[in-house]
């Protein structure tokens, strides 16, 4: 009789070891250099080790500290690294919430499997983050200061000792939380259209997975755009210059389609796997379908939601014909931010004047904030219970 292979332990957030810090870190003030640095993390972090021979270890919450990995680690040589971007929100009712964390868990599993890292049950990520925030939430997002958030970064890396092109035999999942500047202070973005030699993603590649390898190669042109006075790159693809993403955000356009006679909310499709399936993108589309598709809201005409390939030439022609209503980006970092200007070569396409309000973006942002901060009860909000007061000093 053949032997049955043993079942390796799965990731399980119900068994977790907690070691509390004895030296709490200083909580930075809003707008301070520490907050603007994007690097001043909270008191604790989550770590979980995985090996191909023993499966997932017991998760740990422990004081924030640097990692120790071997110089031969797979993530350093073969880009076996993926991550998520999330936020924890202190509601106006005093409760702490995550926004659609199950979607982030599903996407992290998809990304990890794309680069041969271990999978896990997506809901376990939510529970691990909740445990971290039960400990750090009361001090870093105090109940008497509602309307604030922390940026959450779950990351999975191949960190074994084996050098060579092979599937990683060891991995580390870690979760950190960082105070983050409020993106709502940004009135509008200025984008610089990418050139043919600066391609961010392509069909059959890995543009749809949230991998470090997606971002590193894009930073050179991103830096050039910022040096020229722009906020982000507008990434174009192919000889027809398809509009894909804006920086690390999904791109939306509201225009009046002269062919159909309808007002449309347009964004690039997911089927080519060139763009990231953003959680905020998905939420924008679902809110637009349920709340903006059939009736006028606050003076905003109904829109038809369209996911299709569209090009820079189409956008330029629509702008020249006065058919563009507004454009905006969506994502965890920039949230919902209108686009003020796009420069394509020698042409400046002005979409928003100083002091002008982008109506659809503002309305969708208001709906999302109501869910995130507890002004509206909604299934997308996950309330974190059981916050600890032990580390408040």
Proportion in helices:
10-25%
Total DSSP helices: 9
**Oligomeric description of these chains:** single chain
Domains, number = 2
Question: Care to count the β-strands?
Answer: 19
**Mean pLDDT value:** 94
Q: What is the CATH superfamily label of the largest domain?
A: D-amino Acid Aminotransferase, subunit A, domain 2
State the CATH topology of the largest domain: D-amino Acid Aminotransferase, Chain A, domain 2
CATH architectural category of the largest domain: Alpha-Beta Barrel
- The percentage of residues in β strands lies in 25-35%
Largest sheet: 10 strands, mixed
Given as residue ranges, the uncertain stretches (5+ residues, pLDDT < 50) are: none
CATH class of the largest domain: Alpha Beta
- SSE pattern, N- to C-terminal: EHEEEHEEEHHEEEHHEEEEHEHEEEHE
Termini separation? 62 Å
Question: How is the topology of this model organized?
Answer:
Blueprint: E1 17-18, H1 33-36, E2 44-51, E3 55-56, E4 60-63, H2 74-78, E5 81-83, E6 86-90, E7 96-99, H3 101-114, H4 123-140, E8 149-158, E9 170-179, E10 189-193, H5 212-215, H6 219-227, E11 232-237, E12 242-246, E13 249-257, E14 262-267, H7 279-291, E15 304-307, H8 312-320, E16 324-331, E17 335-344, E18 347-350, H9 359-372, E19 381-384
Helix pairs in contact: 3-4
Write a brief structural summary.
It contains nine helices and 19 strands. It is of the alpha+beta class and 393 residues long.
